[in-house]
Amino acid sequence: MFSGALTENFIDVLPNLTKLTLAQNNFTSVEPGALMGLNSLRVLDLSQNKIDVIGDRSFSNLGKLNTLRLDTNRIVTLPSRGFSGLKALTSLDLSHNFLQSLPNGSLVMLSNLRELFLRDNDIINLEGKLFDGLSALKRLDLSENPLHCDCRLLSLASFLTASKARLSGDDLAQVTCMTPSHLENAPLALLTPDQLTCEESVQYDDMEPRPGDASDQIRLEAAELAADGGGARLHWRVDPALSPYRCDQVFVFEPRDDHEQHVASVAAECGGALTDPTRLQMDVRWPELRAGQPYRFCLVLVELWGGRPGVGFVRTASQPRSSSEESIHKEQEETDSQV
Question: Cβ distance 250 to 284 under 8 Å?
């Protein structure tokens, strides 16, 4: 059984290989260059692993690939260029993960995609323009997701309504709302725009979290390098609406030329019962953290609601100062998804 990251040159050059099954292992990530030399590959099965991170352009050399299975893993987010180069892909399975959304542009290169399986994730919101250009799409499985049906799902509802001629009736019927309560189990494709409304906006103080994107609901407020050089202490501000929750993981990313590299996954310890769940302090024990090197931290919280855990996460960028100051300067970055 294999474990750890699927790293560069993991597999020897096998130019005639057409099918590769690496299911039921303990891989934790797929890094760029891991599948070089497999230019004839048609089917790749990475299901039933522990993958939580897909690197930018990890599959870019697989121009003949038509089936990609990433189901039953621990994926919480995808890079916008994660599927770059997969022009021949017809089937993509991301079921049974922890995705809350997909970044805009992540599917734009998949013009031949016929089947997209997103069943049993934690998708709350998804924009219809995500599917722009997928003219060949015939199957879209969004069942078993906790969709919150408000104005942010208007574009997805419009896409589903416009796609009734090519998507199956079963697929459309299974895209249902979990919240709000008065729309529970309602098929999204049957809802009208006046049913998909958002509450009137409320003004907040500059330091208060605002509903909308995850960068407002979970924010990195301060960070310091550990005195012993063994990591960093991160201070997060958490929207009280997310409580109760439990801490899960912190992903650490490092910029490498024109892409980001996932360099560490660290268990996030909340330190037992929280006296103030809106203030979260945690130590990231990762000795390779270097002063002067920029990093981006992705915090994963498991929100406990409705009897089903939902995953909330935020992406922020942090720039370490000099080692003598032993502190990290915070710089906010665009958030990929919404809690």
Answer: yes
For 22, 39, 240, 248, 286, the CA distances from 251, given in Å and listed in that order, are 23, 30, 23, 10, 11
Q: Give per-residue pLDDT as tens, 79-135.
A: 888 898 999 999 999 999 999 888 888 898 899 999 999 999 989 888 888 898 899
Q: How would you classify the pairing of strands 139-141 and 147-148?
A: unpaired
- What are the structure tokens assigned to 196, written together? 């998909």
In the chain, CATH 2.60.40 sits at: 214-332
- Full DSSP string of 119-133: -SS------GGGGTT
Edge-first strand listing for the sheet containing 3-6: 3-6, 26-30, 53-54
Reported as half-sphere exposure (CB side, CA atoms, 13 A), residue 223 has a value of: 27
> Cα–Cα distance between 269 and 273 in angstroms, integer?
11
C-alpha 321/C-alpha 328 separation (Å) is 6
Residue 177 pairs with which residues in a beta bridge?
147
For 1-145, the fitting CATH number among 1.25.10.10, 3.40.50.360, 3.80.10.10, 3.30.70.3270 is 3.80.10.10
Going by their DSSP bridges, the two strands 43-45 and 53-54 should be labelled as: unpaired
Q: pLDDT tens across 291-321, in order?
A: 777 777 777 776 665 444 443 333 332 333 3
For the full predicted model, state whether its pTM sits above 0.85: no
- Residues in the chain predicted with pLDDT less than 70, given as ranges, are 199-216, 229, 256-262, 265, 267, 269-274, 302-339
- Domain 214-332 = CATH 3.40.50: no
Eight-class DSSP state of 199: P
Closest to 80 in 3D by CA, of 259, 221, 339, 325: 259
